[in-house]
Amino acid sequence: MSHPISILPTILFPPLLAQIPDPPTQLWYQGTLPPPELKLLAVVGSRQYTTYGKQVVEYLLAGLAGYPIGIVSGLALGIDGLAHEAALRHHLYTLAVPGSGLEPKVLYPARHRPLAERIISAGGGLLSEFPPDSAATKWSFPQRNRLMAGLSHATLLIEAAPQSGTLITARLAVDYNRELLVVPGNIFTETAKGVHQFLKLGATAITEPNDILYALGIEPNLANDKTTPLPSLSPQEQQVVTLLREPLARDTLIRALGCPVSEAATLLMQMELKGYIVYEAPHYSARI
């Protein structure tokens, strides 16, 4: 990356970090630190996310667009990466807190180094208490998790198995007397079991963006709803969206449309370009 890595003067540390029992003694950053007027929401979850988990991230963060909220996550594969991507897509400030130093040669995971570059270029930032050339280790991730929980006003948990390291962040949010928000999941899936542990203990259930706004003390702007209005769909496009009430395999969707394969392929490609649907092999999902 061409962006400089700087050590952060103690006086500029995020103020909420001073309230945790074991605050960092040093911090390095790249890009732009979160403006003080933002409410910071840590978004964490499983690396092995489901289609449902991805839809939840997109739906909830899209509903936060335009509000003074910043998204904090760990740059990891899975829900973390999806949260950063959704924040960028909806023009929300986002801060990545990796479990490594910030130099490109050690930034972890390597697959998300281009994502880190886009975060900085979009006006977001990277933050780490590890020296810039420090490689990730097994112990560095729990240490990193306390920073995410500590500098955020609330933590949102989306999908986590019972033994997931993600639950460390959730437990720390509770220990630090911060709001813990959880998205209920399918009771038959492993990635919901860790989330439901906290739901039973009294965490706040989140089923729509306004739930997050209320938890952060932000009044929804009902006169200027931030929800993107539904586009005007052609009859064929409406048929696709209707069929995609649940994700479908490409071949299944094309057969259900009942038109020539070439025509169906063109329709689906155009709808992807418009952002109405998304293809993640082997399934199509609706985004509206």
Helical stretch tally = 10
Q: What general outline do the C-alpha atoms trace?
A: globular
User: Overall pLDDT, averaged?
Assistant: 90
**CATH architecture level-2 label of the largest domain:** 3-Layer(aba) Sandwich
- Please give the oligomerization state of what you see: single chain
- The computed structural class is alpha/beta
Give the percentage of residues in beta strands: 15-25%
Quickly name the level 1 CATH class of the largest domain: Alpha Beta
Low-confidence stretches: 223-229
Helix content: 25-40%
Q: Name the strands of the widest sheet in spatial order.
A: 1-2-6-5-4-3-7-8-9
Q: Ends: how far apart?
A: 35 Å
CATH fold descriptor of the largest domain: Rossmann fold
Largest sheet: 9 strands, mixed
Radius of gyration: 20 Å
**Count of strand segments:** 12
The tally of domains stands at 2
Element-level helix/strand string: EEEHEHEHEHEHEHEHHEHHEE
